[in-house]
Write a structure and sequence with these properties.
Precorrin-3B C17-methyltransferase (chains A, B); 30% helix; Methyltransferase, Cobalt-precorrin-4 Transmethylase, Domain 2; 13 strands; five-stranded mixed beta sheet; cobalamin biosynthesis (chains A, B); Cobalt-precorrin-4 Transmethylase, domain 1; precorrin-3B C17-methyltransferase activity (chains A, B); 253 residues; alpha/beta; five-stranded parallel beta sheet; homodimer; 4pyrrole_Mease_sub2 (chains A, B); S-adenosyl-L-methionine (chains A, B)
Chain lengths: 253, 253
């Protein structure tokens, strides 16, 4: 079998944050599967074909991509950020496990990228400077009770929290409820960072206290980082503050 | 003040995984501070100066770098991986907060990179495909009791765990104890990935069950990923298995 499937992370959206490995993988592929806006970021040649799909059709897209690779094509599945973080790599693995034996024999490669929380953290200081976690607020694929339980557990244990998929038209209330839960566990002065489109021309980084965190500040392109009880803010005259989590800790809350 | 301090993440060590933004930042800097082996990866010009230090001297290095930037130099602080993940960005912020007011007025920029857990995950499948956390096993700067409490909390809540700084000469027993703690909370069949030097010529990716996980498999260049109870292994004939955490979950353990 001569087909190949490569799952590429293009980074947060600033071309300067896309790795040479990702660029080379894109140049070597012939058919591209992905969410339309991610495919729009690529500059493809006339001999390269794109198959755009909606961002809620990940498993169907993974199956289509595997079918195409199994037919002998060089297939590229495109994710923004890193393909292994709430993105296409897991969807492709699910499809392989449930699919025909031929899919297990395919040459599958995954190219990592800079994921959103790292790009947001870099613009804000070092909020992920100590133990942290990444949690998706999407309850399409897990019950909300699990999300709530996880938020309480990690906040109580003193981890910084990066929230992916914080809000969407189909998911309007979850982020506000998450803030309400975290206000029961964390000091109200804990810094919260809304990081929208980090590194892109339309970037917006907002730092507020947990008390003042308003879900309406976030949109689909936002990664929200909630500090631990030890996360600090350094004010700077005429410049954005630096938010950081010290490398040392006395103990969890 | 014309000085500048830029904190750069060079990625996991494969030059193809260093972003163009990091390369440009390195080219524009005149004095480089960092752990010797990270500086050794750079190709510097004759007019660029390097100041190497030991990997346990992060705060002193941050202060030296800030002093030099405040004197008007273009200073680059170099981290492997991402500078915001258990690396120099937090140390620089700590030094700024405790330092003279002039340091707060400095132009400070942080360039993100592909952090080790993403590079390891990409080589193993999609083990970070659902909620996950990153915890440092270094107890230089936090009490071991806090680490133990965090491990129990996140494993019980169903998060995948990436362990940074798992082992060193000064830290010989912590990883073995971490496995023992996790065996009290997680199914013994949970996949464990030892990812050494991912993406580099001396790469070694090993997948075992939690029951068989042996701390001696890790060294200082290893990132250890421990699955959640839902993490799965897809066996493939003649190829390494794919380890992945499904996007959906029925509930935490």
């Amino acid at each position: 079998m001569s087909g190949k499937l490569i799952i590429v992370g293009t980074g947060p959206g600033n071309p300067d944050q896309t790795t040479p490995q990702a660029i080379a993988a894109i140049e070597a592929s012939s058919v591209f599967f992905g969410y339309g806006p991610y495919l729009d970021r690529l500059t493809l040649r006339d001999d390269q074909r794109r198959v755009a799909s909606d961002n809620r059709e990940e498993l169907a897209r993974a199956k289509d991509a595997l079918h195409t690779a199994a037919s002998g094509e060089k297939v590229c599945v495109v994710s923004g950020g890193d393909p292994g973080v709430f993105a296409m790599a897991a969807a492709v693995c699910e499809a392989i496990e449930a699919g025909p034996p031929a899919w297990r024999a395919l040459d599958v490669e995954i190219v990592p990228g800079v994921t959103a929380m790292l790009a947001v953290a870099a613009r804000a200081g070092a909020p992920l400077g100590h133990d942290f976690c990444a949690i998706s607020l999407s309850d399409n694929l897990k019950p909300w009770t699990v999300i709530e339980q996880r938020l309480r557990a990690v906040a109580s244990a003193g981890l910084v929290i990066a929230l992916y998929n914080p809000i969407s038209k189909a998911r309007p209330w979850q982020l506000g409820t998450a803030f309400a839960i975290l206000r029961e566990v964390l000091p109200w002065g804990t810094p919260v960072i809304f990081g929208r489109a980090a590194g892109r021309p339309d970037e917006a980084i907002t730092v507020v206290s947990l008390a003042d965190a308003d879900a309406a500040t976030a949109d689909m392109a936002t990664c929200v980082i909630i500090g631990s009880p030890e996360t600090r803010i350094i004010e700077r005259e005429g410049m954005a503050p630096l938010v950081y989590s010290p490398r040392s800790t006395g103990g969890a809350k």
